[in-house]
Each structure stands twice: as structure tokens, then as C-alpha cells.
Write a structure and sequence with these properties.
- The complex is a heterodimer.
- By secondary structure, chain A is mainly alpha-helical.
- Chain A is built from 5 helices and 2 strands, in the order βαααααβ.
- In chain A, strands 1-2 form a two-stranded antiparallel sheet.
- The termini of chain A are close together.
- Chain B has a 6-stranded antiparallel barrel. A 6-stranded antiparallel beta barrel of chain B has the order 6-7-8-11-10-9.
- In chain B, strand 6 and strand 7 form a beta hairpin.
- In chain B, helix 1 packs across helix 2.
- Chain B starts with a helix and ends with a strand.
- Classes of the chains: A mainly alpha, B alpha+beta.
- The interface between A and B is medium-sized, with 33 and 34 residues.
């Protein structure tokens, strides 16, 4: 009886090719998701408000980006999202970017320092992000001198918005957690090692005794 | 493990982005002429994106609009139900007020007209019945005119007869028993202590004292009517307005006020007087507006 050693073919090369693809694909997908979130949110804000608020899809996407790339990624994505938002609604460029930089960075920071990658902590950070954005919007309006109806009403709207965002986020986060596949080659190994070997028993020949 | 370089990047990048955002804000505000066209071009170019986003969010927007319309419809419905109830009350009140006003006007017009017996020193004042005791044992009502309107104890009180063509628009229902500043109590003809000097119109000598019947509160009995007088059913009964021979005793009621109609005249062989049963023109349990004949000028 002989033991046949089988190595997964070109494992390392495939892994690095796949990781290169991920390095290009994921940021591209994140950028697309960010632009889509901006335009969807602008469309919802036209005539689909509940209690004066809409779910904050931009902050939801920033959460995903911050989960993947930490506070720096969150800040960069926030800046980009803010620019796109200001261009989409034709308002002075930079205002939303300033607010979303802070929100993206804060969420990334909280996720890193927080109790770990549980669903509850992600939802908590998301709610904190939406509330922070609402607070910064109010502060910016107060600094610039934009007349707002009533700070309390605005605060109430922000809370409703956070609640709606959590409702939208919950099924998405649950789905994302279930579909996570890491690493891409799911070869069962006895020990965590790149030099994985698998022992196979040959088939018995006829007449062997 | 995070290296020094990565720590530096983590600190610098957010600061750089914040500064960049502030620069952009400043440029947007101060160099609007340069930035404006860029924004407008972007807006025109990304119009299809807006369209796609609107279509993609249409189910959500329709659902929100449906719930919003439902809520608005509910609020509107509740508001209209409340308004409807208020308007119905208002209408009922208006109808009643119009009815009362017409009745009062008719009463006053009649009392002031030539068809009504001469009032002499009396002046008519209109009033409404505001309270009536539910008990049949209490034969009085409260009206909304008192001393401030010139009402005095003993003043005759009339109510509308309505569409009785033979009598006209008013008949006696009682007299003022007590007076407050703004209200007064009317003791009805059916009150136990009521007594009115009356006569049968057109029948010589057929006069007597009208009092309530002990057996039937809807009927009055005119007693002390001479046996020799002739009284028939259907004869009209009015106030006699009697005056004593020396002028020291006088009826509280002016002469000629309609009271009711004779239903029956009873007399036995041994009775000294005739008893005449009189049905009042006015249903004493059902009138709502009155005219008080006061002695003060209107």
C-alpha cells in the first residue's frame, strides 16, 4: 500500500492572482455602491420620506467600506461620497464631503476599537454614524446660518432616519455575513499550513491478498 | 501589527481630506463662476442616473405614498366626521332658533295687532321657556325674562296657538309666580292654586272662575256659572277681566284673552251653579315660546 501525496496545484499563484483581482474589484465595487447609494438616496428624498426621513444608504455603504478598510478607508470613501452628493444635488462642493469624512472615519475607528465583528456592534456603529451625520448637518446649518424649522424636529427626523437605516441594513448585514467565503479555495486541511498535503488510499487491485 | 508608517497614514489622511473639503467649500463660495459650470455640466451629464435611480426606487416611493395617502385620508376622514357632527348640531340649533324666532315674531305681531283684545296698560314681552319640570305634579315653567325685562309677579303669560284660525295667535297659559333678575317662573293654568276669572264669549251671564280639574289635568273647570246661562260645546272661553263694583278688586288679566273652548257643560237638578269643562287652546305641556304682558312700557 502506498501513500500518494497530492498538492493543490499552483495554490500560491492562484491565491495571489485572486488577491490581485480582489484588490482591484473590491474598491471598484465599493465606488459603484457608493455612487448608487448617493443617487438612490437623492431619489428617495424627493417624495418617499417617512416621518420626514429616509434611510441613510450612503452611511450604510460607508459602514461596509469601513468594515473592510478601517477608518482611513471610511474617511476616503466619505470624502468621495460627499463630493458626489454635492454634485448630484447642485450645492456648494465640499460641505457634505467634510461631514462624511468625519462620519466614515468615526465608524471605522469604532469598528476597530469595538467588541468585534458581531452583527449588533455593526448595527450600533451604523446608528451612531447616522446620528453623527444628523448632528453635524445641524451644526453646519447653524454655522452657515441656514434657517431650519426647529432643532428638536430635526433631531427627531434624524432619529427616525437612523431607525429606518437599521431596518434596511439588518437583512443586508445578515446576508453578507452568511455569504462570506474566506479563503477562496476551500480545501479541508489537517493543520493551518500552506504546504497542505492530502493522503489518499489507492484502490485495492484484484487478487491481492 | 500596525507599523509607524501605517499609524502616520491613519492620522494624516483624514486631516488632508478635511483640509481638502474646506478648500473646496471656499472655492465653491468664492469662485462660484468657475465651479458653477462644472456642477451644471455634471448635473446634465448625470441626469440619466437620476432617472434610473427614480425608476429603481419607484416601488418604495409608491409604497410610502400609499401609506402617506392612507394616513392623510384617515386624518381627513376624522376631521370631516367631527366637522359633520358640529355642522349637524349647528344646523339643528339654527333650525330651532329660526323656528323659535318665527313663532315669537308671530306671537308678538298677533298680540300687537287689532285682532288681539285691547291691552290697555299692558305691554307684550317675548320670552323662551328654558326649563320645565319633568314631574307632572309641578305645573310651572321657567322663562328667560325677569325683572330686568320689566316682568312682575302676576303678569299674564300667553303662548302661541299656531294655526287656529278661529282664535288667532295667542292664548293664556298662566301667570308669573316668581321673578328673578333674568328669569321668572310661570304658574300654569293647571297649577293647583290657579284661578282665572273667565266668561263664555257670546253667552250672556255665562261667567265664572276657571280652575284646574282634579280628575283630568288637561281640562279646566269653570265653576260658579249661573244655571240660567246657556253654554254649548264649542263656545270660546276668554278672560273676564272683572272689576269690582267699587273698583277695589280687579282681575289680574285683561279682558278678552283667549283661554280655551267649552267641551261640556254639566249641571244637575240640585246644583246651584253650572260646571263648564274647558279644554285650553294651548297644550300646557308642550309650548316653548311665550309673551308676557307686563305693566311697564316696552
Amino acid at each position: 500500500m502506498s501513500v500518494v501525496e497530492v498538492r493543490p496545484p499552483v495554490h500560491e499563484e492562484m491565491q495571489s492572482a485572486s488577491s490581485r483581482k480582489r484588490r482591484v474589484l473590491y474598491p471598484f465595487a465599493a465606488a459603484l455602491a457608493l455612487v448608487a447609494a448617493v443617487y438612490l438616496q437623492v431619489a428617495l428624498a424627493v417624495d418617499a420620506r417617512l416621518g420626514g426621513a429616509t434611510p441613510d444608504l450612503v452611511v450604510l455603504v460607508l459602514l461596509g467600506i469601513a468594515l473592510r478598510w478601517g477608518p482611513v478607508g471610511g474617511a476616503v470613501a466619505g470624502f468621495a461620497a460627499g463630493l458626489v452628493l454635492d454634485l448630484a444635488v447642485v450645492q456648494p462642493i465640499g460641505g457634505s464631503a467634510l461631514i462624511l469624512v468625519a462620519v466614515g472615519w468615526a465608524m471605522g475607528y469604532l469598528l476597530q476599537r469595538g467588541p468585534g465583528g458581531s452583527l449588533l456592534s455593526a448595527l450600533g456603529v451604523l446608528a451612531a454614524g447616522v446620528l453623527l451625520r444628523g448632528l453635524l448637518d445641524l451644526a453646519a446649518a447653524a454655522i452657515v446660518g441656514t434657517p431650519i424649522v426647529d432643532p428638536l424636529t430635526q433631531a427627531g427626523t434624524t432619529v427616525v432616519g437612523a431607525f429606518l437605516t437599521l431596518i434596511v441594513a439588518l437583512p443586508i448585514l445578515v446576508l453578507v455575513r452568511r455569504r462570506r467565503v474566506d479563503p477562496p479555495l476551500a480545501i479541508p486541511v489537517a493543520a493551518a499550513s500552506d504546504d497542505a498535503t492530502v493522503e489518499l488510499q489507492p484502490e485495492p487491485t484484484s487478487g491481492a491478498g | 501589527m500596525p507599523t509607524d508608517r501605517s499609524r502616520l497614514i491613519r492620522r494624516i489622511v483624514p486631516l488632508v481630506l478635511i483640509v481638502a473639503a474646506l478648500v473646496l467649500i471656499t472655492l465653491s463660495v468664492r469662485a462660484e463662476a468657475a465651479v458653477g459650470p462644472v456642477q451644471r455640466t455634471w448635473s446634465d451629464t448625470t441626469l440619466p442616473l437620476h432617472e434610473v435611480a427614480r425608476r429603481a426606487t419607484r416601488p418604495v416611493r409608491d409604497a410610502v405614498a400609499w401609506f402617506g395617502d392612507l394616513r392623510t385620508a384617515r386624518i381627513e376622514r376624522d376631521r370631516l366626521v367631527a366637522e359633520n357632527a358640529a355642522l349637524r348640531d349647528q344646523l339643528a340649533t339654527q333650525v330651532l332658533a329660526t323656528q323659535d324666532a318665527e313663532e315669537l315674531r308671530g306671537l308678538l305681531d298677533y298680540v300687537r295687532s287689532d285682532a288681539f283684545p285691547a291691552l290697555g296698560d299692558f305691554s307684550p314681552r317675548a320670552a323662551r321657556v328654558v326649563a320645565r319640570a319633568p314631574s307632572a305634579a309641578v305645573q310651572s315653567v321657567v322663562i328667560d325674562a325677569g325683572a330686568a325685562a320689566g316682568v312682575q309677579i302676576g303678569d299674564p303669560v300667553l303662548a302661541g296657538v299656531g294655526d287656529s284660525a278661529r282664535v288667532g295667535g295667542a292664548a293664556l297659559v298662566g301667570r308669573i309666580a316668581t321673578v328673578g333678575d333674568r328669569t321668572a317662573t310661570v304658574a300654569l293654568l293647571s297649577a293647583p292654586d290657579s284661578a282665572v276669572g273667565a266668561l263664555v264669549a257670546g253667552r250672556r251671564g255665562a261667567d265664572g272662575i276657571l280652575q284646574p280639574s282634579a280628575a283630568d289635568p288637561s281640562v279646566l273647570v269653570m265653576g260658579f256659572v249661573r244655571r240660567s246661562s246657556v253654554v254649548r260645546g264649542g263656545d270660546r272661553v276668554v278672560t273676564s277681566g272683572f272689576l269690582g263694583p267699587r273698583g277695589d278688586v280687579a282681575s289680574a288679566f285683561p279682558r278678552g284673552l283667549p283661554i280655551g273652548v267649552v267641551s261640556e257643560a254639566r249641571q244637575s237638578d240640585t246644583d246651584t251653579y253650572k260646571n263648564v269643562l274647558v279644554v285650553p287652546w294651548i297644550d300646557l305641556a308642550a309650548f316653548a315660546n311665550v309673551v308676557v304682558l307686563t305693566r311697564e312700557p316696552s
